[in-house]
Design a protein that fits this description.
5-stranded antiparallel sheet; 21% strand; alpha+beta; binds flavin-adenine dinucleotide; 7-stranded antiparallel sheet; Uridine Diphospho-n-acetylenolpyruvylglucosamine Reductase, domain 2; 17 helices; Alpha-Beta Plaits; 4 domains; single chain
Length: 488
């Protein structure tokens, strides 16, 4: 079988994956065979065959995993088959009277949206990876889109998800919007990370395309006032479709990417530096920026925008216009891929995220930044960047997304060093009240914390379910359950 086909289904998008590929380093294990089922029935047959012959299967959607979830366990002696779902990408049906749609699970996010748009609808799920990630991958990892405030996270959008397990098919027999009929065992599909079965078809809620889409941005004197403003917006439950807050480092990083020499030059084309510093007394090395996206009817968007602007003003915010809002929003799409370019310049970088309650948000951000700084100093890393942004808000807390990168000139094995520092940072996150992950999932990279921070009873429940649904452990991609990092 074509080795490139096998290789490209045996990695995701972690720093380790991309660095290894760019430096011609071999992965310890790749899949032996790739198959491309074209329907739910094909998947049933595949699962039967692999059980009969004791073969391992790893579902593969868009391959955008940043948790090592699609990589092959190094010590697996059995034959490994990657099940590439890309050919299962049909729109099965669209029910306009109930605003529901059924797609095959291999459809890629932007293709799904294009099909819906043609018919006047949207599902509104837009993770930053939506140009490459698949519907099945979203469900398997419990993904979160940047417009979740209005449309919901993937778990809010899914009405039914068919999953083929070694035991049979898990599916709902009804499309009813809600049911009180015992524990909802179908929830086990969400976040299963390819360890229990293959998701083949998904029924989602849809909505008509909104009349208009408007960006906005607000500058705050410092991160704390920005966070307090976000907290107030969440308290009043008036979040627009997307609301994000970059810290000062990330703001300046974004400015540095502009094709101008002066880092403040371009932003201040539309928003004069002197206005911020002299009139408002802001310090350019502490300001932070909130980007906003509104969707809906024109009149509603205008009044919503005004309401947010009023709240922002009461926290010392100054509105900075639509253009900066749009630019900030788009930056989050491209920033991950800048990491790949940075590798050319001896810079390794990666993001890691968490969720945390409001009362612990600022201290968590602070603790993580200090931890990373201490680790860098210890290792004599002079040039590094650690920054964060708040990307999602909830009644009781938010999602914090960190970027960390450093120039590794003079150091050996930068990826290992990066992982060591990230590990200490994750320990700090956990000690500061954060979660293992808000949306990237556990995969193999965070399995160590999954076992540590999940109750014994829940671990037993998971293991028992796994034994029942997959008695021969053919879905043995090693996610959720610990694999030592050295074995990755
Ligand atoms: C640039 C970038 C930005 C990102 N932004 C976001 C974001 O905003 N929000 C977010 O939630 N995530 C984000 N991610 C992470 C990633 O895109 C998500 O985890 C996504 O849901 C993975 O989908 P995928 O189709 O690429 O899955 P894959 O990477 O192919 O697989 C991920 C896991 O799901 C399993 N899987 C895939 N398809 C199926 C299936 N049909 N049945 C059963 N299991 C399956 C795999 O076995 C694996 O365990 C980002 C990643 C990148 C690289």
């Amino acid at each position: 079988m074509d080795s490139l086909a096998r290789l490209s289904r045996s990695h995701g998008q972690t720093l380790y994956d991309i660095y290894s590929l760019r430096h011609g380093k071999c992965f310890p294990r790749i899949s032996d065979i790739v198959v491309w089922p074209v329907s739910h029935e094909d998947v049933i047959q595949i699962v039967k065959i692999v059980n009969k012959h004791n073969i391992v299967i790893i579902p593969f959607g868009g391959g955008t995993s940043v948790s090592g979830a699609v990589s092959c366990p190094k010590d697996e002696k059995r034959c490994i088959v990657s099940v590439d779902t890309s050919q299962m990408n049909r729109l099965m049906w669209l029910d306009e009277s109930n605003l529901l749609v059924c797609f095959e699970a291999g459809v890629i996010g932007q293709d799904l949206e294009r099909e819906l748009h043609k018919r006047g609808y949207t599902c509104g799920h837009e993770p930053d990876s939506y140009e490459f990630s698949s519907l099945g991958g979203w469900v398997a990892t419990r993904a979160s889109g940047m417009k979740k405030n209005v449309y919901g996270n993937i778990e809010d959008l899914v009405i039914d998800a068919k999953m083929v397990t070694s035991r049979g098919v898990i599916e709902k027999k009804s499309m009813a919007p809600r049911m009180s009929s015992g524990p909802d065992f179908q929830q086990i599909v969400l976040g299963s990370e390819g360890t229990l079965g293959i998701i083949t078809e998904v029924v989602l809620k849809i909505r008509p395309i909104p009349e208009c889409r408007v960006y906005d941005s607000v500058v705050f004197p410092n991160f704390e006032s920005g966070v307090n403003c976000m907290r107030e917006v969440a308290k009043q439950r008036c979040q627009p479709v997307s609301i994000r807050l970059m810290d000062n480092t990330q703001f300046r990083f974004g400015e540095a990417l502009r094709p101008v020499e002066n880092i403040f030059g371009s932003f201040l084309e539309s928003f004069k530096k002197s206005y911020l510093t002299f009139v408002h007394g802001f310090q350019l090395d502490s300001i932070c920026v909130m980007t906003l996206l509104f969707e809906g009817k024109k009149s509603e968007v205008v009044s919503h925008k005004n309401r947010i602007a009023k709240i922002a003003m009461s926290f010392g915010g100054v509105t900075a216009g639509e253009r900066n809002g749009e630019r900030g929003y788009m930056l989050t799409f491209v920033i991950a891929y800048i990491r790949d370019l940075a590798l050319e310049y001896r810079v390794v970088a990666e993001s890691f995220e968490t969720s945390v309650t409001w009362d612990k948000t600022l201290s968590l951000c602070d603790n993580v930044k200090k931890t990373v700084a201490i680790q860098c100093n210890k290792l004599n890393i002079k040039y590094y960047l650690i920054s964060c942004r708040i990307t999602q808000t909830y009644d009781s807390g938010c999602c914090v997304y960190f970027y960390f990168g450093f120039n590794w000139t003079g150091l050996d094995n930068p990826v290992l060093i990066y992982h060591r520092i990230e590990t200490v940072a994750r320990d700090t996150i956990m000690a500061s009240g954060g979660s293992i992950s808000h949306h990237h999932g556990v995969g193999k990279l965070r399995a160590h914390w999954y076992e540590k921070y999940t109750s014994e009873t829940v671990l037993t429940l998971y293991n028992t379910s796994k034994k029942i649904l997959d008695p021969k452990n053919v879905f043995a991609n090693g996610n959720l359950i610990s694999v030592p990092r050295s074995k990755l």
